[in-house]
Write a structure and sequence with these properties.
Largest sheet: 5 strands, antiparallel
CATH architecture of the largest domain: Roll
Order of helices and strands: HHHEEHHHHEEEEEHEHEEHEH
Structural class: alpha+beta
Radius of gyration: 26 Å
CATH topology of the largest domain: SH3 type barrels
Number of helices: 11
Shape: globular
Number of strands: 11
Strand order of the largest sheet: 6-5-4-3-7
Strand content: 15-25%
Distance between the termini: 50 Å
Helix content: 25-40%
């Protein structure tokens, strides 16, 4: 089985630690990859602090016998859970500094007792995690750079100058943001803070930021910002300022699938004799929950409030009209 990049780099490290010297051509043949790839892998080892060197007399790369990673005292379950997070679960979230996390796991993995390392390697081959849809950042140097800039601005309480593609306003807007918090929610990262343009706390999706610069201007406040107080009873992350008591009836085909998930902190479920389930929420705003309900199509009935039922019916009618067009 062909090794992945992280696995190959770990094997190169183990190979060099054995005490022999290996030329790039030796490593290339050993791992079935190009010389260019081996050079890139060696640079990655250098980046995580592995002091390999080229021994001219022996004609290859070596790691000194004095080099040892710090001892790691993990039991089997601790080691497996850590490596599972690094190698598998990280696929479910756009993890900033993902390569750094993987190489940190590599350092730990390489120093595990042989019995635990072999068990973890065998277990990980039979465990998979499938990532959901993501909103990748394809500009500004990617997620690492954008995240680092905002995190640094939060830590130093510096304003950031931002050009942002606002879907709500339908245009590119320019503003200064006092960033308070970074938040991952439903496939994407968001920055929350006080916007100079809106004169209020707003939410900005990182992959819609067109330009970003940390300024020398400091801001006051924000240290008491609480994400969950701000979100309140919003269905997801946009509070609208009005609380609604939502009552939905899900038909038997989907009732159990819906009821087994805790969608909202206020959720209550009542099972009915016909196999359906009545699910109730107390939610701030109708906008976000409307799209969630529509995802269940003809398997859900809006019992209350009337405003939500009317909203669902209007969207459904527009869907029919749109799809009737040829």
């Amino acid at each position: 089985m062909k090794l992945g990049r992280i696995g190959r780099i770990m094997q190169i490290l183990t190979t060099l630690q054995a005490g022999k010297s290996y030329a790039v051509s030796d490593l290339s043949k050993m791992f079935g990859t190009s010389r260019r790839t081996i050079f890139r892998d060696l640079k990655e080892l250098q980046a995580i602090g592995v002091p390999y060197r080229y021994d001219a007399e022996r004609g290859g790369y070596v790691i000194g016998a004095e080099f040892f990673l710090p001892p790691v005292d993990l039991n089997l379950q601790e080691a497996l859970s850590l490596l599972l997070l690094a190698h598998k679960a990280s696929n479910h979230i756009q993890l900033p500094f993902k390569n750094s996390a993987l190489f940190a796991a590599l350092k730990i993995e390489n120093n595990l007792p042989s019995r635990i390392r072999q068990y973890c390697n065998a277990a990980l081959r039979n465990i998979s995690a499938r990532a959901g849809a993501q909103a990748p950042i394809r500009h500004l140097g990617g997620l690492d750079r954008t995240f680092a800039q905002l995190q640094n601005a939060i830590a130093k309480k510096r304003k950031v100058a931002m050009r942002y593609h606002s879907l709500f306003e339908g245009k590119i807007i320019d503003l200064e943001l006092c960033p308070y918090h970074l938040f991952y929610n439903h496939r994407a990262w968001y920055a929350l803070g006080h916007s100079s343009l809106h004169n209020s706390v707003r939410t900005f999706k990182l992959n819609r930021i067109k330009e970003l610069q940390v300024t020398d201007k400091c801001f006051v406040g924000g240290e008491n910002f609480n994400l969950y107080d701000y979100l309140g009873r919003a269905w997801s992350m946009i509070p609208e300022g009005r609380i609604y008591d939502i009552k939905l009836r899900f038909l038997p085909k989907v009732a159990n699938n819906v009821a087994e998930v805790q969608w909202h902190s206020t959720q209550t479920v009542t099972y009915n004799s016909d196999g359906s389930a009545t699910v109730e929420f107390c939610v701030d705003g109708l906008g976000e929950i409307t799209w969630w309900i529509l995802g269940y199509g003809d398997q859900v009935q809006v019992l209350a409030p009337k405003a939500l039922r009317d909203k669902i019916m209007e969207v459904a009618k527009n869907m029919v009209k749109l799809n009737e067009k040829t």
